[in-house]
Design a protein that fits this description.
Structural class: alpha/beta
Distance between the termini: 25 Å
Strand order of the largest sheet: 5-4-3-6-7
Shape: globular
Protein name: Redoxin
Order of helices and strands: HHEEEHEHEHEEH
Number of strands: 7
Keywords: Signal
Helix content: 25-40%
InterPro entries: Redoxin, Thioredoxin-like_sf, Thioredoxin_domain, Thioredoxin_ResA/DsbE_sf
Radius of gyration: 15 Å
Organism: Haemophilus parainfluenzae HK2019
Length: about 160
């Protein structure tokens, strides 16, 4: 059943119908220190993004793997995570930041999509949700569900 649902979600993904490129380079995001950033700082290498929520047990179970993957030195792609405070039942930014700072992850980059712009442009249907951007930060692939480190590497490679 899970495989059927995943296949259906992939079929209905925005990339199945997209006629033009969806760029995420200019989306305004916040760091956990409340600094405004865009994804343009990651231009030049493919970018893997894990979309997740604090209330999602599958997402939380995968954070340790993302932390380890983020620490790897010889990756040919960048790894970040994005949460969306105030969107899709996620708590507000200040509560999310306070909650996250209580966790013990050293390597994960967490950016906040407070306006839900990534959710809209990438048509994020639920959590966890995986995005792959090319070196120019155009959305080229989406995958709902949990991916372990090896699956993420394969997701980027294909």
């Amino acid at each position: 059943m899970r495989k059927i649902l995943t296949a259906l979600l992939l079929f209905l993904s925005p990339l199945s119908f997209a006629q033009e490129k969806v760029s995420l380079a200019d989306v305004s995001l916040k760091t956990l220190d409340n600094q405004t950033v865009t994804l343009s700082q990651y231009e030049g290498k493919p970018l893997y993004i894990k979309m997740w929520a604090s209330w999602c047990p599958i997402c939380l179970a995968g954070l340790a793997e993302i932390d380890d993957l983020s620490a790897e030195k010889n990756l040919d792609f960048n790894v970040i995570t994005i949460a969306s405070p105030g969107q899709k039942n996620e708590q507000n930014s200040s509560k999310f930041i306070n909650w996250y700072k209580g966790l013990d992850y050293k390597n994960i980059t967490v950016l906040l999509d407070e306006n839900g712009e990534i959710i809209k442009r990438a048509n994020v249907l639920g959590y966890p949700f995986n995005l792959l951007l090319d070196k120019d930060l155009n959305l080229i692939k989406v995958q709902p569900g949990h991916l372990n480190s090896d699956q993420i590497k394969q997701f980027v490679k294909e």
